[in-house]
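Hi R.,

Here are the chain sequences for the assembly we discussed:
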Amino acid sequence: MELSDRKKKILQAIIDDYIASAEPVGSSHILKNHDLGVSSATIRNEMASLEEAGYLEKPHTSAGRVPSYLGYRVYVDQLMNEYRLSIAEINQITHALGKKYIELRRAIDSISDIMSALTDYTAIYTTPSSSLVTISNIKLIAVEARSFVVVAVCHDGSVRNRTIRTAKAYEAEVLEKLSNYLSYRFAGCDVSEFTPEVLSAEKELIPVDGALIDSVFDFLSDIANEAETVDVVLNGTTNIFKHPEFNDIGRTKEFLNFLKKDNSKMIKSLLSATGDTTSVIIGNENPVLKDKDISLVVSNYSLGGSMKGKLAIIGPTRMDYAKVISTLDYLTACINDVMGNDKGDDQT
Amino acid sequence: MELSDRKKKILQAIIDDYIASAEPVGSSHILKNHDLGVSSATIRNEMASLEEAGYLEKPHTSAGRVPSYLGYRVYVDQLMNEYRLSIAEINQITHALGKKYIELRRAIDSISDIMSALTDYTAIYTTPSSSLVTISNIKLIAVEARSFVVVAVCHDGSVRNRTIRTAKAYEAEVLEKLSNYLSYRFAGCDVSEFTPEVLSAEKELIPVDGALIDSVFDFLSDIANEAETVDVVLNGTTNIFKHPEFNDIGRTKEFLNFLKKDNSKMIKSLLSATGDTTSVIIGNENPVLKDKDISLVVSNYSLGGSMKGKLAIIGPTRMDYAKVISTLDYLTACINDVMGNDKGDDQT
DNA sequence: TTTAGCACTCCAAAGGTTCGAGTGCTAAAG
DNA sequence: CTTTAGCACTCGAACCTTTGGAGTGCTAAA
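And here is the predicted structure of the full complex:
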């Protein structure tokens, strides 16, 4: 059903007001705060019609109207005004992106932190991961007589390492020879190729002490398994208390339980189901959120080219979508600019 | 003031019951559930006396008694019965400690996770850190034509690394020579010695392209700064909802706000103020917790010898101290056994 | 010193009342 | 046909009152 211009205006007015106030919006409120040039009775008629069409709901007979999920959807897709970030907000972002980080993970963590601070909602991100991680170099570096570090350097610039203690001491020369052989043998291999079969076949070919090989191959097989591990991390959880819906303990419990660690698999799949552009998931639109009154705005970030992940904001359905979407878009654009080239690592 | 045996028994009974039920305990309750051989009137008299001595409090005239902070202190130090872990609990711990971890951080994280699951409270830990980190080896490993990884291996087996991309390409030989020199020069140095002064003096001495040196020294100076960074991590935050005190939204807000990121400095100092043995901080005993009705049980863990940190449980003052202390003690003993020697791995 | 008995206290829960914001409907006006 | 003023009606939020019971402290007797 196509909405008349007036209906659109009224719907937008109601949702704007409801997002701002968290109170059901009545016809006389709209009359007072918006210049529609019609009486409250007319607005009431339109509201009744919008309700029938499924865009609005009534908590009870004598309350105002509240947007339905469908209402929010129309609002997000067609009605809302664009939010422009203030100078102060832009400065805050610029400043935070200027910092140096030992690890990329720290960078994205601190970005999600800003995100939650700017929006007053909770930020979620998935830890960056590469779809393809190929080995560039493997080195065994002696630490002490009976311990060494094995370092696997990948083409995307990421590094994995483990300290290994051994029963007997190995000559530096042995370690170096093994380093050279492994680097030669596995250069260009994707880590996913480190299957038990490949490794045990390989082991036969190397004329070095079995225990040494085993410990190194254990490590390789572990990084193969870990390659797929993506964590979900939260920031600004307590921001929820800034919103009146979370003065209700039941609501708060439900929200926090949804976010808890045990549930990260579900959240991961929720995030990864979104496409390449910023997308909005409103309340019941995803069965996982059924009756939870939770919405998400999800976008994609990428660090140093090949490391990618999702950065999202989660909050009540009554969310300031305009602000969240703009901020998220701006921020991820910045990340991709700043981190994409001069920082971190990349293959050219 | 020394308490009579009977007073001790009554105090213990009250606190035991209160911990179990979360309801103020009345004299007739004690009469019913404990075999003290005296009437409720006598118990009432004793309770009045315990209250006067500061071990008990009354929420209001016609309610039962509730332990004061002082009461809990006496209970923890003298009165409570030891809690014995069940076979199931021990199995759970053993099983979790048997897993393999690419990183030590993962290990302690998963341990704190178990801890929170076993106790139904929130677990806190500080990330492991070494008081002294001395360099064993520094290696520059080429990734591609114009990028390399610099890896700093330390004597405690920890490794730090960074990928560096350069304007021009360097020969593998140059990188190797520089590796050798840096390893030779800095072997045995504590990372804290990487001050701007030392590094810039050193730079003069090395006959290699300045940009190359700069990028490597930047890294070294960053790890010097990061050496002191200890994070505070939480697990099982939502466990609080299992306890009736957190049916109150105000209480819940206060608790979660206390735990939030911005406050980690305070928590860190709270944890680090404890000694080498497991210690209990009850409510107001620490000014930081003033009127927050929060208690902590804090213990020390160590991974692979030199990496140490704090592992703690935080919850309402009405906490099952006996269970928490036993579980924490058992768990940290296990960590120190299992992780102390044969495992040792780390990653940036 | 202990205990039965009793008056007293005070909260929690349940029920009742009031108030007002908001609605839908009707009938008249545009 | 659309808009609007007018009005009766609805229903929850906020406030008060009542009631019941758990628990106390005190007193006087054992």
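Confidence is low (pLDDT under 50) at residues 341-348 of chain B. DSSP finds twelve helices and ten strands in chain B.

Let me know if anything looks off.

Best,
T.
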